[in-house]
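Whiteboard transcription, Tuesday session. T.W. wrote the structure tokens on the left side:
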């Protein structure tokens, strides 16, 4: 395949690895041998360097995000060595200098999170078709894996190598709803991504599972809204992803839930609930910070500190219960 065939933009939704709570959006734009990478992410360990890479296989394909199934030593974390067999080698290091490096996990010149745990990164690299790693990227940019590293496991020190977020690249071409993102400048893309992320993860958790919550966006209060949407992100390294739309009908006194998810354990029943607090306290997504027993998993009791108890179980037959 000639490099011309790959020209275009690719998007990656970065989802939490290792219960990090990190979410992000990345765009990769290839023009000839020039690759520009834009990354916006939030929920990272503040004021720390976060080594970041484009991972993939140099021969064949089949890269996938690492899941808890790849946790070979059963410590509840998927380390970088455990992830590499499925995400592939580090084909391109995303460093601040624009230097093109492959196979180097920590360069000392890595993207940095700010005091709020947000990271904005934009850099252009000139790839060398004579280098096998870079040639592989020039041949195929689709279904590569963008990964951000750097996590503070509970009770531990900051570890710059632990995976914190990962996402597969998908082409923006052909996705009408996303075409606008391909046209945006680097700065516009980062601004758009930051706006989206501020709606999804506008807070840092403390071990008690409370905020502080960021202030609500000024346009967040819509008294007449009856339709709500949520993006379902992997918990406990499950790899499960989904989307849900919830509609309230005041007159009928009914609630309608449309949910689609993938990556769940096949042929198994999966309990689903709406959680919340009975006072006005907002629910927050739990992450590793509230893992009080130190096993790196967020069990129901730990999660409920931030989510609140079950308000409604989503039953198959529409019956109303708060039972799990
Ligand atoms: Cu990496």
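and on the right, the sequence the group agreed on:
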């Amino acid at each position: 395949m000639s490099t011309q065939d790959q020209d275009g933009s690719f998007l990656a939704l970065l989802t939490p690895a290792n219960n990090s709570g990190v979410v992000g959006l990345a765009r990769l734009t290839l023009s000839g041998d020039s690759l520009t990478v834009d990354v916006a992410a939030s929920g990272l360990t503040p004021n720390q360097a976060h080594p970041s890479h484009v991972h993939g296989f140099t021969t064949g394909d089949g890269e996938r995000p690492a899941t808890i199934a790849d946790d070979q030593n059963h410590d509840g974390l998927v380390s970088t060595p455990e992830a590499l067999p499925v995400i592939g080698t580090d084909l391109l290091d995303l460093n601040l200098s624009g230097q093109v490096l492959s196979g180097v996990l920590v360069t000392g010149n890595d993207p940095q999170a700010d005091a709020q745990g947000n990271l904005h990164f934009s850099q252009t690299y000139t790839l060398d078709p004579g280098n096998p790693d870079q040639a592989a990227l020039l041949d195929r940019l689709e279904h590569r894996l963008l990964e951000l590293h750097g996590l503070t496991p509970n009770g531990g020190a900051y570890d710059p190598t632990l995976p914190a977020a990962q996402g597969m690249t998908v082409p923006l071409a052909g996705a009408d709803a996303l075409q606008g993102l391909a046209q945006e400048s680097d700065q516009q893309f980062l601004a758009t991504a930051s706006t989206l992320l501020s709606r999804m993860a506008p807070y840092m958790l403390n071990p008690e599972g409370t905020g502080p919550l960021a202030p609500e966006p000024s346009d967040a209060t819509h008294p007449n809204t009856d339709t709500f949407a949520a993006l379902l992100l992997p918990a406990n390294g499950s790899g499960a992803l989904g989307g849900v739309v919830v509609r309230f009908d005041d007159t009928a006194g009914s609630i309608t839930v449309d949910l689609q998810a993938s990556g769940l354990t096949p042929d198994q029943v999966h309990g689903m609930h709406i959680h919340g607090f009975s006072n006005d306290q907002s629910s927050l997504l739990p992450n590793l910070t509230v893992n009080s027993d130190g096993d790196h998993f967020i069990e129901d009791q730990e999660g409920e500190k931030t989510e609140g108890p079950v308000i409604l179980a989503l039953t198959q037959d529409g019956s109303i219960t708060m039972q799990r």
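Someone added at the bottom: The helical segments are 80-87, 132-139, 179-183, 186-200, 300-307.
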